[in-house]
């Protein structure tokens, strides 16, 4: 039976996928004490990376917000794989969003809201987090967005 968090996701029409395997020499999640560190997650769906390109050079903020939401879905899939149950999350402590963007693009926070809004919708107050939204020249596989997370685990 799904817990409260997955029930909220289901109400939103979201089913968590199987977590994506690491693409290089790292692990997708590391637990240290009561903290869980989730490696950067790309907007990967069943067909691969769903949004490539650069903000400020053809990729829309709206499309990138949806991609950031998919990154957050993949973060939660990794957390569920590491913890067995998303109800074990005490707090989403911090998200870091990376946005492939031109030097003059300044709406990275709007893009990363796609991930932040979903965390709050899924976890309620426990989903409110500190955050960074960083513009970068390029991301792996040409992705437009990447999101990583730091999560506190309930004891």
Automatic annotation (TrEMBL):
Residues 6-143 form the Endoribonuclease L-PSP/chorismate mutase-like domain. It comes from the Bacteria. CDD domains: YjgF_YER057c_UK114_like_1. This is Enamine deaminase RidA (YjgF/YER057c/UK114 family).
């Amino acid at each position: 039976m799904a817990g409260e968090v997955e029930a909220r996701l289901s109400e939103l029409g979201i089913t968590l996928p199987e977590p994506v395997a690491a693409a290089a020499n790292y692990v997708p999640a590391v637990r240290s004490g009561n903290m869980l560190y989730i490696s950067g997650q790309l907007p990967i769906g069943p067909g691969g990376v769903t949004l490539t390109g650069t903000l400020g050079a053809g990729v829309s903020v709206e499309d990138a917000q949806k991609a950031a939401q998919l990154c957050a879905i993949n973060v939660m899939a990794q957390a569920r794989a590491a913890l067995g149950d998303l109800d074990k999350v005490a707090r989403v402590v911090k998200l870091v969003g990376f946005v492939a963007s031109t030097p003059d693009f300044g709406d990275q926070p709007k893009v990363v809201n796609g991930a932040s809004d979903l965390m709050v919708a899924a976890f309620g107050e426990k989903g409110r987090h500190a955050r960074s939204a960083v513009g970068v020249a390029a991301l792996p596989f040409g992705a437009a967005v990447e999101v990583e997370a730091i999560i506190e685990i309930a004891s």
